[in-house]
């Protein structure tokens, strides 16, 4: 079955390669890291990172969740090099910026046995820690054969993923179920976010004695320091009376016009309102700018602002939207917001990290698609620390109601922050479990 899987992935690569080649030539993406994805490890990383702890974080969200874990593992095992891998370019950039203590940052290989084997033999890792649930059959099989324990940390199986697995198993269960069970027999541990995630991965075939519930690492994400740009923005909105300040973060494709409609509802009541619109991915920056232009609003790009030389005059009149076309600044910007919206939730994208604004005492508003954060969203709603909206008009009205009731807004924000504080500790529990595997291996 592994042979069939490899053939299918190769066919998939061949079919999609013209698209990625064209995109790479147009935008400079994919091609630059192609060698790394085929398992090539930079010589300087290979030279100094033998016997490393290897942490894999797919993209920006996983890198941020892995940050306290990576730092604590480095403190716990100072004699072991630390290597971070990502799948996306944005994740790679953020890992290099935020994890300067890492000994190497690389791209995760394609899931072909020979590519995975090249990386394994170059790094000879003491263990591999995969954030959330990137199940790569060939990689897991190669790691097992090379004697490298793989640990899933912050593991989850979302509602959407479970439905997909259930459909596939109902159609092809006679071959897929044994293959999945075999694949899930390779990891040393699955450290789940919740009891539900633990039950789901066991249902898919993970041996129950290797499953632990350690909590969600995202609760332990450190509060972003106040940045120069954040201070500039706070001064500018005060100086030019651009309140309320709305931050719509992690907005995904197709969601930009919906947020702008909601903002229009708010502007009908509060003419001086100002919106920070933060697309989730860099390839949406230009598309978001076009949507703002089509809404006939004045806007300014973050990339056009130099906080040291700009006193915020652009916010004085005629401009009502700031397009945050940068990576890594959003979380800190929530600090100065009067109301927020967390994207990926008014379109079927599964939602994004509501804990970032909650940590600053800002009650998150989000849409109906929150499968990726369903447990957290349900907890926030149950404690009256967040609000779910059905459509753009509902979002605009919710902003008006929250801003018009500052005591309620503050109480919801305090409840949201309390939930974050109450659920900290997953990092320590995760480090303890990883340490147990590493120390057990060293004694073997």
3D structure, described in words:
The protein is of the alpha/beta class and 444 residues long. It folds into 2 domains: 35-215 and 425-443, Rossmann fold; 228-422, Glycogen Phosphorylase B (Rossmann fold). The chain is built from 18 helices and 14 strands. The protein has helices at residues 2-27, 34-37, 43-48, 60-76, 89-98, 113-123, 137-145, 159-183, 195-204, 228-239, 256-269, 285-294, 330-333, 355-359, 374-382, 392-404, 406-422, 426-443, and strands spanning 53-56, 82-86, 104-107, 127-131, 150-155, 189-192, 211-213, 245-251, 274-279, 299-301, 321-323, 339-342, 365-366, 387-388. Strands 3-2-1-4-5-6-7 form a 7-stranded parallel β-sheet, with helices on both faces. A 5-stranded parallel β-sheet has the order 10-11-9-8-12. The longest helix has 26 residues, at 2-27.
